Amino acid sequence: QVQLVESGGGLVQAGGSLRLSCAASGRTGNVYAMGWFRQAPGKEREFVAALNWSGGINYADSVKGRFTISRDSAKRTVYLQMTSLKPEDTAVYYCAARRGGNIATMNREFDYWGQGTQVTVSS
């Protein structure tokens, strides 16, 4: 099994920045891609960003140019740097990992999930 623990969420004003972290532990040797999703109240969980160990990266259109996903393989940690935050970015942000190496954007393509961290952007 793989355990994922997110951190770094919080309350920030519009235009501000936050950096989320996702630390992986357990049987991480069979993980080849990770990503971030978010879920706002009353809405479905949606894709935010993902990367794989081959260097592939993908972003949702709504965050392109504002969010950056990166990875520290030695620390088994993936980051999501969020800048120019907007109130519509308010959501619980989830880290996810998958055994497949392709860049994935669908919930069902990910095998492991964290508990989520709340991000609230005030106007």
Q: What is shown here, in short?
A:
The chain has 123 residues and is mainly β.
What pattern of helices and strands is seen along the backbone?
A: EEEEEEEEEEE
- What distance lies between the first and last C-alpha atoms, to the nearest angstrom? 40 Å
Give the overall shape: globular
Number of helices: 0
Q: Summarize the biggest pleated sheet.
A: 7 strands, mixed
Q: Please tell me the overall pLDDT.
A: 96
Report on the architecture of this protein.
The chain has 123 residues and is mainly β. It is built from no helices and eleven strands. The strands form two sheets. Strands 2, 4, 5, 6, 9, 10 and 11 form a seven-stranded mixed sheet that branches. The mean pLDDT is 96.
Main traits of this protein?
123 residues; mainly beta; 7-stranded mixed β-sheet; 52% strand
Write the layout of secondary structure elements.
Blueprint (H helix, E strand, L loop, with lengths): L1 E6 L2 E4 L4 E9 L6 E7 L6 E7 L4 E3 L7 E6 L4 E6 L8 E8 L13 E2 L3 E6 L1
Parallel strand pairs: 2-11
Antiparallel strand pairs: 1-3, 3-8, 4-5, 4-9, 5-6, 7-8, 9-10, 9-11
